[in-house]
Amino acid sequence: MAQILKSSRMAPIRCDIRGPIEAESIRLQKQGIKILPLNTGNPATFGFSAPDVVLEAMEKNVRSAQAQAYCSTPGLPQAREAVARNAVLRKGIKGVTADDIYMGNGASEIIELALLALLSPGDEVLVPMPDYPLWTGATQLASGNPVHYLCDESNGWLPDLDDIRSKVTNRTKAIVIINPNNPTGVVYPRETLEGILEIAREHGLLVFSDEIYDRLLYDGAKHIATASLCDDLFIITLGGLSKSHYLCGYRCGWMIMSGDRSHAQDYLDGLKVIMSLRLCSNVPAQEVVPIAMDETESMEKMLAPGGRLYEQRRVVLEELPKIPGVSVVPNYGAFYVFPKLDERFHITNDEQFALDFLRAKHVMVVNGRGFSWNAPDHFRLVCLPEPEVLRDAIHRLGDFLDGYKQA
Questions:
Q1: Which whole-number Å values give the CA distances from 209 to 77, 224, 241, in the listed order?
Q2: Looking at residue 231, what is its pLDDT?
Q3: Positive or negative CA dihedral for 340, 342, 343, 349?
């Protein structure tokens, strides 16, 4: 019988966050070994729970006829209105109405569909390096080519504007901004965002601004919505409830379209069709959006000194640099860091490093090349466990690295 083969478009696509390292973790767990999963930003795994008012809203509405029926393709009117109101009043994006919003099953679905509607074979998308791997994989799945621009570790992981400019070609259709960034946790200043927007302006590029972590900020960092800085460019802003409200499993995200779309009607028509093919996104999750948009107190407490997220981050930034050969740029957003391993470890295969660490110390991290980084010298660490659990995990890393060296 002939082999059933995967599509050729799948050949370059990988997902190291849930790839071979996680598979090895599952194998070890089946042997009764307890693994600390620092590979995914999944708050509920570490005891975080959504605000009570959000959970109560879900419980109240889940049995309603509206929650059991398809809604319109763009989403529930009240959810879209809440997202639009938040975009204008909190994010400072001018002119946004409910008609500019599409709701999705998480921001991930929106990203995939937006790229599918945009790209023809060979079209290019500028994606940060390191990146959240969905952007690279979704571009490839849409038959496009991700072109990675450098985020400079020596400059606090800020995008290198000269590198971006040098990589624009006549096939470039869009540029991706991830702010706050995953995996580095950097929060971009106005000057950096304006520089990227000027490049987009010069070359007529669509801008995707992934702002899923815009409420997760530390030490007075301020998030600036990319779309708040101009209205002459077409900008698609991505957001959702997964991280800010610990609702990963609810799968509730959105896109906000803003700026000049006078030249984009054909794309918008295609976007409408591809969104319609999935009928609509999760209706019960959309029911909680209006309440969630106004619930800020619980997150603010977590991020303030003494709050759980703040103290977890503090432990990571204090303990990691104590390990000889490990350095880290402080994160001011999200809940990840992207540490560097220096030359003393002779690491040539970062996936092997992560596997060796997992097998020896039962802690799961993701290798840096899983985020499109161009050298085997980084890994991503998730800062979600309780402070003492994180401290123990980092001590295990130090014990593991003491004497570790790849051939």
A1: 23, 11, 16
A2: 93
A3: negative
Reduced to 3 states (helix: H, G, I; strand: E, B; else coil), residue 358 is helix
Please, are residues 173 and 206 in contact by the beta-carbon 8 Å criterion? yes
Backbone angles phi and psi of 168, in degrees to 5: -75, 130
pTM of this structure: 0.94
Give the DSSP letter string of 152-196: EGGGTTEE-HHHHHHT--TTEEEEEEESS-TTT-----HHHHHHH
Report strand pairing: 124-129 vs 145-152: parallel
Helix/strand/coil for 234? coil
Closest CA to 157 of 382, 310, 344, 334: 334
- Residues of the chain predicted below pLDDT 50: none
b/e map 53-63, b = 16+ CB within 10 Å:
ebeebbeeeee
In contact, 153 and 181? CB cutoff 8 Å: no
Please, which residues bridge with residue 193 across strands? none
Amino acid sitting at position 330: P
Residue 61 backbone zone (phi > 0: left; psi -120 to 50: alpha; other: beta): alpha
Task: Please tell me the predicted confidence (pLDDT) of residue 65.
Answer: 58
Measured from the Cβ of residue 76, the count of other Cβ atoms closer than 10 Å reads 22
